[in-house]
């Protein structure tokens, strides 16, 4: 196959490829450091990467990929039990860390290589094939221990090239983000994406609106973030003129990993004149859809299928949803070269994840608009509410609730109801804890915007919603604590 990183072999050697805070590497220096590491990894079967938000993490993963050795990114915030499971399940030969990094006892038995970002070596000829594993990325484990999704090299290349097409992404782009580096968004899109294009990435280390403004006003062209980050940006815009200027001058603003509330879309657009583009993907599929940079705005949708991705919506009985009416809810199923190959050591789970004709069952529920755009309404397990004979997606109710001035954060779940089957439950963080909105007020607000059968019947007031590292609301925790 062709090289994953052609710029490392023949690109602009003095151009900056990576910058983390005050530290940076040119393409020439990255080629030397990653090439030297690749030579040390050549005989390894699989390597773990202690994925701290540092320059060495990017060098470690790049070096492993150059060596044709699968990398297992490890979340430094993982608990001991989860980390022990991942290490036992993936059985890496060694762990790659930044120099002097403190690692937990669960990694103590592994041989360790401290990555030298100043090492000098040569980029090896890439011997691995398209279907060979590139990464083993562990899922969130909401229904049991995390599963290791084996992502082949072809999936990396396919997704990144499809996004280049959708976003007009080139080597002239400079990406800024502050995402963690142990998952698809921050690592594959946020680091490997710029390197494949021959562009640059500036990692903030820790997300902050001042850092975003500084980098975008200093030549960065793209921003990647999750909804929590864009919400903080929207909140800060009225008081930070440099942030307004920065976003207004950016070429592309991308949000992913969860739905961006319409209210935040509208506030950012009103203040900066720039729309935020959404895309949709999963650990197992990498990217499936995106709003195109040269297409319609599509606020509230995650765009259209990317080149090479087949996507369909399926009813509960397995029949495909016919037509795009913007109303009929179905489960998203996808097929294409962007998919993972298996769950490591889990043939049963792998078989259950695919249909007989090779489509992956995502578990995400959506509708398709008349233009083919996909609008996610929630997860099948936690966000599809069957109430009074209707199938209702929690996402659209959450967006409606967030339009109420008395609501700062919102989540929606269902709970058993003898009459309706399930009733809609709203979990609200009020804008003013001293004067929270009432259930009657919120129910009327939702009924006027959507439909009466979509109004909440139960209200819980909270100080904060439980969220994971990616800013996604952990609804299972809400229901468990109810």
UniProtKB/TrEMBL annotation:
Q: Where is the AMP-dependent synthetase/ligase domain?
A: 10-344
The organism's lineage is:
Bacteria, Bacillati, Actinomycetota, Actinomycetes, Kitasatosporales
Q: Which GO terms describe its molecular function?
A: medium-chain fatty acid-CoA ligase activity
Q: Which InterPro entries match?
A: AMP-bd_C, AMP-bd_C_sf, AMP-binding_CS, AMP-dep_synth/lig_dom, ANL_N_sf
Q: Which GO terms describe its biological process?
A: fatty acid metabolic process
Instruction: Please give the name of this protein.
Output: Acyl-CoA synthetase
Which PANTHER family does the annotation name?
A: ACYL-COA SYNTHETASE, ACYL-COA SYNTHETASE FAMILY MEMBER 3
- State the organism of origin: Streptomyces collinus (strain DSM 40733 / Tue 365)
Q: Which Pfam families match?
A: AMP-binding (PF00501), AMP-binding_C (PF13193)
């Amino acid at each position: 196959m062709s090289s994953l990183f052609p710029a490392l072999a023949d690109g602009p050697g003095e151009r900056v490829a990576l910058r983390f805070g005050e530290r940076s590497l040119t393409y020439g220096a990255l080629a030397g450091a990653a090439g030297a590491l690749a030579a040390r990894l050549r005989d390894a079967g699989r390597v773990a990467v202690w994925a701290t938000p540092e320059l060495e993490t990017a060098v470690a993963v790049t070096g492993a990929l150059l060596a044709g050795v699968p990398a297992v990114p490890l979340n430094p915030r993982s608990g001991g039990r989860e980390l022990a499971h991942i290490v036992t399940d993936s059985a890496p030969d060694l762990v790659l860390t930044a120099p002097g990094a403190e690692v937990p006892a669960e990694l103590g038995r592994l041989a360790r290589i401290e990555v030298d970002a100043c090492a000098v070596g040569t980029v090896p000829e890439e011997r691995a094939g398209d279907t060979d594993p590139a990464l083993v990325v562990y899922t969130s484990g909401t229904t049991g221990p995390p599963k290791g999704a084996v992502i082949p090299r072809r999936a990396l290349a396919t997704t990144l090239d499809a996004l280049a097409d959708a976003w007009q992404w080139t080597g002239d782009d400079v990406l800024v983000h502050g995402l963690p580096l142990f998952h698809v968004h921050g690592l594959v899109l946020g680091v490997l994406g710029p390197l494949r294009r021959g562009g640059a990435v500036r990692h903030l280390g820790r997300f902050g609106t001042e850092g975003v403004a500084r980098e975008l006003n200093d030549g960065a062209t793209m921003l990647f973030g999750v909804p929590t980050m864009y919400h903080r940006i929207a909140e800060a815009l009225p008081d930070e003129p440099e942030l307004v200027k920065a976003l207004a001058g950016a070429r592309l603003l991308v949000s992913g990993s969860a739905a961006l509330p319409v209210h935040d879309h509208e506030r950012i657009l009103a203040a900066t004149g720039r729309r935020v583009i959404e895309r949709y993907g999963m650990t197992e599929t990498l990217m499936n859809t995106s709003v195109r940079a040269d297409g319609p705005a599509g606020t509230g949708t995650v765009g259209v299928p990317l080149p090479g991705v087949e996507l369909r919506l399926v009813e509960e009985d397995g029949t495909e949803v016919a037509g795009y009416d913007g109303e009929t809810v179905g489960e998203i199923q996808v097929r294409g070269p962007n998919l993972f190959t298996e769950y490591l050591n889990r043939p049963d789970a792998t078989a259950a994840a695919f249909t007989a004709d090779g489509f992956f069952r995502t578990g995400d529920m959506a509708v398709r608009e008349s233009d083919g755009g996909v609008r996610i309404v929630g997860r099948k397990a936690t966000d599809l509410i069957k109430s009074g004979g209707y199938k209702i997606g929690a996402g659209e109710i959450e967006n409606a609730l967030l339009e109420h001035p008395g609501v700062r954060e919102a989540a929606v779940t269902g709970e058993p109801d003898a009459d309706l089957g399930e009733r809609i439950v709203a979990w609200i963080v009020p804008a003013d804890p001293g004067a929270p909105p009432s259930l009657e007020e919120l129910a009327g607000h939702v009924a006027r915007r959507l439909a009466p059968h979509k109004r909440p019947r139960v209200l819980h007031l909270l100080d904060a919603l439980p969220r994971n590292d990616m800013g996604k609301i952990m609804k299972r925790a809400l229901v468990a604590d109810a």
